[in-house]
Amino acid sequence: MSRVLVGVKRVIDYAVKVRVKPDKTGVVTEGVKHSMNPFDEIAVEEAVKMKEKKLVSEIIAVSVGPTQSQETIRTALAMGVDRGIHVEVSGKEYELLQPLHVSKILAKLAQEEKVDLVLVGKQAIDDDSNQTAQMTAALLDWPQGTFCSKIEKSEAGLTITREVDGGLENIKTKVPAVLSADLRLNTPRYATLPNIMKAKKKPIKKTTAKDLGVDTSPRIQIVSVEDPPTREAGAIVPDVDTLISKLKELGHIK
């Protein structure tokens, strides 16, 4: 394999308590800490490990989003990625951007850059769609390995261990392929200060969805975004008999 394309999404940081906008059109993003999607960090780490093992020669990070997405690309560059591509999509267009749009962009770039592997996180923690890898593979007509907890080089291509409801599934796939990273695949490294400084000199190419021939017109309309219902306070009962009578009162048992 020569090149790997890694998708990196800028999302609200996992430690931030998300707040819904008063008009219920979405969530508050202004003035809120953002960072790289944690599953994408795992995808970047795996690509860097592949390069360290000399399985790949170049890693390209792609982020689709507003100008601030370049910060996410810089984080990937500091982790060991060689160069970045920023596909600028902003404003209302970005708010209604769907996995299908991102998949079309990744598929087009994978062809343009002549990559052998597309590696993304299994899902983004903001929309939890878990669709991008699958649709990118379909658009490219490449084999896919999703929810990867282990990726190994084999004679024919790759051997992948993936997490399924019943346990672990092992599959073999040829390359080129599209893979999505699960939580147990690896532990992402922290970017060191020297690597952060080096990342500032690494190139980031800017482009747009239009330049790539991808139509990002919204296919959905957000009707309403609401907070989940607040949980009612519990009550402490003195004994089991009282608990049973309370449950009967509430209709939980007969």
Core attributes:
globular, two-stranded antiparallel ribbon, Rossmann fold, alpha/beta, nine-stranded mixed sheet, 254 residues
Mind explaining what this structure looks like?
There is one protein chain. The protein is an alpha/beta fold and 254 residues long. It has a single domain (3-228), classed as Rossmann fold (3-Layer(aba) Sandwich), CATH 3.40.50.620. It is built from seven helices and eleven strands. The chain has helices spanning 38-52, 69-79, 91-95, 99-112, 132-140, 193-199, 240-249, and strands spanning 3-7, 10-12, 34-36, 58-65, 83-88, 117-121, 144-153, 158-164, 167-173, 177-181, 204-208. The chain has a nine-stranded mixed β-sheet, sandwiched between helices. A two-stranded antiparallel ribbon has the order 2-3. Helix 2 (69-79) packs across helix 6 (193-199) and helix 4 crosses helix 5. The chain starts with a strand and ends in a 5-residue tail after the last helix. The model has no long low-confidence stretch (mean pLDDT 92).
Please provide a brief summary of the model.
The protein has 254 residues and is of the alpha/beta class. The protein has seven helices and eleven strands.
Q: Topology, pairings included?
A:
Blueprint: E1 3-7, E2 10-12, E3 34-36, H1 38-52, E4 58-65, H2 69-79, E5 83-88, H3 91-95, H4 99-112, E6 117-121, H5 132-140, E7 144-153, E8 158-164, E9 167-173, E10 177-181, H6 193-199, E11 204-208, H7 240-249
Parallel strand pairs: 1-4, 1-6, 4-5, 5-11, 6-10, 7-10
Antiparallel strand pairs: 2-3, 7-8, 8-9
Helix pairs in contact: 2-6, 4-5
